[in-house]
């Protein structure tokens, strides 16, 4: 059984993960619009990952005998100045996600809700990867500024990214 407060925050996180998926789908659309289909593929896969995150919290709520409450998904930003701007915003977004996961972990730990902490530990580790992946891609696109050959090489590389669903919880 989850406390009302924890349940409310986990439901908010379900919504926020759906929003994250929307944010990356918007970035995929921008990449398509500037003919960078490899970058678009990267963001489409990212959007799928965020859906999987939403479903991980969604499933967890039911496992703990709680009720899922779905809310409106906010409209994502659709205006980007450049691919650098996209990665800067993606990196900022992941840092915001991390702060939300930490806030959830603070509540779970105050309540000594060990099962939720175990779930959140998975997300804490995942966020290290997420931030690192966005930060290193941001650095690479910055270095490649004004060098179309380097951007197209990255585009080819990012075209190969495939979605791997996260392992289900036991
Ligand atoms: Fe996520
Ligand atoms: Fe993420």
From TrEMBL:
The record's principal subcellular location, in a coarse class, is cytoplasm
The record's listing under CDD domains reads: Nonheme_Ferritin (cd01055)
Residue ranges annotated for the Ferritin-like diiron domain, each copy included: 1-145
User: The organism sits in which domain of life?
Assistant: Bacteria
Provide this UniProt record's keywords sorted from A to Z.
Cytoplasm, Iron, Iron storage, Metal-binding, Oxidoreductase
**In UniProt terms, what function does this protein have?**
Iron-storage protein.
Please state which protein family the record places this protein in.
Belongs to the ferritin family. Prokaryotic subfamily.
Protein name (Swiss-Prot/TrEMBL):
Ferritin
């Amino acid at each position: 059984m989850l406390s009302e407060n924890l349940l409310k925050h986990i439901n908010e996180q379900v919504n926020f993960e759906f929003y994250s998926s929307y944010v990356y789908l918007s970035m995929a659309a921008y990449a398509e619009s500037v003919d960078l289909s490899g970058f678009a593929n990267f963001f489409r896969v990212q959007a799928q990952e965020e859906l999987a995150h939403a479903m991980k919290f969604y499933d967890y709520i039911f496992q703990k005998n709680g009720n899922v409450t779905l809310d409106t998904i906010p409209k994502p930003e659709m205006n980007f100045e450049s691919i650098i701007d996209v990665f800067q915003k993606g990196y900022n977004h992941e840092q915001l996600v991390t702060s939300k996961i930490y806030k959830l972990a603070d509540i779970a730990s105050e309540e000594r809700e060990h099962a939720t902490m175990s779930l959140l530990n998975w997300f804490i580790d995942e966020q290290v990867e997420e931030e690192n992946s966005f930060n290193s891609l941001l650095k690479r696109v910055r270095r490649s500024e004004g060098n179309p050959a380097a951007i197209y090489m990255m585009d080819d590389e990012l075209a190969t990214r495939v979605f791997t669903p996260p392992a289900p919880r036991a």
